[in-house]
Amino acid sequence: MSKSSDDPRRQLLRQLSALRDRIDPQAINQFLRKIDGWEPYDREAAGEAVRQFLATRQDGGKFQERLRHALTKKDGEE
């Protein structure tokens, strides 16, 4: 049985934590200000992918309604 310190996931988490500690918070804030309003994906293509996925569902629209409700709730919280 391997030790928990040998677990690759724990090693990766330690490496990510070390990288995160090296990032300058001011640089992150500057980056976020520059991309404000920019979407890192094609919104139209993403919407089409979701519509195609929902069209394959065989639950009479129940999943779509739950999704719509969850998105409405999320928008209301922000």
What features would you describe in this structure?
With 78 residues, the chain is mostly helical. The protein has helices spanning 8-22, 25-34, 43-55, 62-77. The mean pLDDT is 84.
Summed up, what is this model?
With 78 residues, the protein is an all-alpha fold. Helices cover 69% and strands 0% of the residues. The protein has helices spanning 8-22, 25-34, 43-55, 62-77.
Features:
4 helices; mainly alpha; 69% helix
Topology, element by element:
Blueprint: H1 8-22, H2 25-34, H3 43-55, H4 62-77
Question: In what range is the share of β-strand residues?
Answer: under 5%
Uncertain segments are none
Structural class: mainly alpha
Give a count of the beta strands, DSSP E runs of length 2 or more: 0
- State the shape: extended
Tell me roughly what share of residues is in helical segments: 55-70%
What does the main sheet amount to? Answer: none
What string, H for helix and E for strand, traces the elements in order? HHHH
Count of individual helical segments: 4
**Distance linking N and C termini:** 46 Å
Radius of gyration: 20 Å
Average pLDDT metric: 84
